[in-house]
């Protein structure tokens, strides 16, 4: 079932960092990222290269660098920056009254 899940206050996510959520989406971990400008993004927490934990990567601008082999993943769409290729599944996210909500679609790849 698709749902907006409240994952708590924005302040729980470090600036230019990420939090790996307790929730799993269809068996996959979910990461929420916060940029230096307080923009937030959510991706399935698996690098498209070899499933590295993107939540442990370095956030720079609107990208995250995978901690395993340094692929750079765009936070907007989960796409690896060239020359690398692949996509981490993006999930919709929003902030309502200071709390962060992540949209968990019924199926991976479904539009929010
Ligand atoms: S697993 Fe992320 S770059 Fe290799």
UniProtKB/TrEMBL annotation:
GO biological process: nitrate assimilation
GO MF terms held by the record: 2 iron, 2 sulfur cluster binding; metal ion binding; nitrite reductase [NAD(P)H] activity
UniProt-listed Enzyme Commission number(s): 1.7.1.4
SUPFAM superfamilies per the UniProt record, alphabetical: ISP domain
Domain of life: Bacteria
Classification via InterPro entries: Rieske-like_NirD (IPR012748), Rieske_2Fe-2S (IPR017941), Rieske_2Fe-2S_sf (IPR036922)
Keyword Iron: yes
Pfam families the UniProt entry points to: Rieske
Keywords: 2Fe-2S, Iron, Iron-sulfur, Metal-binding, Nitrate assimilation, Oxidoreductase
Residue span(s) of domain Rieske: 4-102
Stored PANTHER family: 3-PHENYLPROPIONATE_CINNAMIC ACID DIOXYGENASE FERREDOXIN SUBUNIT (PTHR21496:SF23), FERREDOXIN-RELATED (PTHR21496)
Name under which the protein is recorded: Assimilatory nitrite reductase (NAD(P)H) small subunit
Organism for this UniProt entry: Nitrobacter hamburgensis (strain DSM 10229 / NCIMB 13809 / X14)
């Amino acid at each position: 079932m698709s749902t907006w899940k409240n994952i708590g206050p924005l302040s729980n996510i470090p600036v230019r960092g990420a939090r790996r959520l307790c929730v799993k989406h269809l068996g996959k971990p979910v990461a929420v990222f916060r940029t230096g400008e307080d923009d937030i993004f959510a991706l399935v927490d698996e690098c498209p290269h070899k499933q590295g934990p993107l939540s442990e990567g370095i956030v720079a601008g609107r990208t995250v660098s995978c901690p395993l082999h340094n692929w750079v993943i765009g936070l907007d769409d989960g796409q690896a920056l060239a020359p690398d290729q692949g996509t981490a599944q993006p999930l919709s996210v929003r902030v309502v009254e200071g709390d962060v909500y992540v949209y968990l679609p019924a199926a991976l790849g479904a539009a929010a």
